[in-house]
Amino acid sequence: MEPVILACTRIWLIIISCLVIISIVGDVGVMSSSSTVAGLLSYQYYETSCPQVESIVTDKLTPILLSDPASSAALLRLLFHDCQVQGCDASLLLDSDTSEMSSSKNFAIRNRETIGIIKTAVDSVCPGTVSCSDILVLAARDAVAMSGGPKMKVLLGRKDSNTSNHTLADASLPAANTGVGEMLSIFTKRGMTVEESVAILGSHTLGVSHCVNIMDRFSRQIIGANRTPFETLLALRCAFGASISNSGTVGNDVTITKFDNQYYKDTSRGRGLLKIDSDMSTDPRTAPIVERFAQNQNEFFKEFTAAFLKLTSANVLTGHQGVVRTKCNAVN
Ligand code: HEM
b or e along 283-310 (b: 16 or more beta carbons within 10 Å of the residue's beta carbon)? Predict the structure, then answer.
């Protein structure tokens, strides 16, 4: 009888050990699969939770862009300034960021409310699912495509932050008089090549700059002396106090609502508006690339697409690192 009891006890011990091992392996499996999901953005992130998100964003944005074509430029710049500070996390949409404490580098930032409007539409179909940072990326992506630019696929799954940091914004956003060396250092830190860095600056194919930000191009010269014809034109355009009152603007290129390679054509002919636009066409590190993009729009679109993906994926919050905000302009 005793050997039978011993054998049974051994069998039970083996079964219990197997169950313990299976449960541990199972836990590890869950942990590793959830940490993989948490650590990565994905093209299919909302495939099951909100498959309509991309079409809702496009449908909501189309009439806004049709009634105000300047919104494309505003949304693209909004995205850049959001991504540049703490990674794309919608911190720039927080009301606390619009206060007088906000970084002066965010001068003339517009269209934050557009993201809130789209968020309401998305939430009416998929409540509490899609982050404001993902909506901003999708809106800027659509703004580029609807203005004639490349139709890009973007990674999704970013989470929103609960904070914004004005000091960091002041330190990280480029000043209006940024030169080529600093620009390359900003974008190569995000893993961009020199070609991609020049391409992301092609965003200046859209929109305008205020006179106050281009005064350096002409104010250091005595009237008329040593100015190129383009600088004289800028001086006239920004005359009569427009540069002081912040009211005057000049187009970043001659087709300000069209996403095309006109920006490179203009800059390569000495008509770059901001210092960085102008300097890129003469600096030996960037001038050949400016020339190449001026000749070939497809090359520009290809490099821009790669750069956009890197700009929008670097240092983002995923999984439990952030939240899905209920309202884009306030923390939950
Ligand atoms: C070193 C890099 C950069 C510098 C120094 C810079 C500087 C500026 C400045 C000073 C303005 C004019 C703002 C105003 O006066 O209203 C401007 C406008 C603009 N920037 Fe940039 N920028 C840089 C990179 C970028 C990037 C990477 C993007 C997009 C991904 C971008 C998108 C835009 C757009 C679309 C406008 C026009 C905004 C509008 O019309 O509302 N910029 N930029």
Answer: beebbebbebbbeebebbbebbbbbbbb
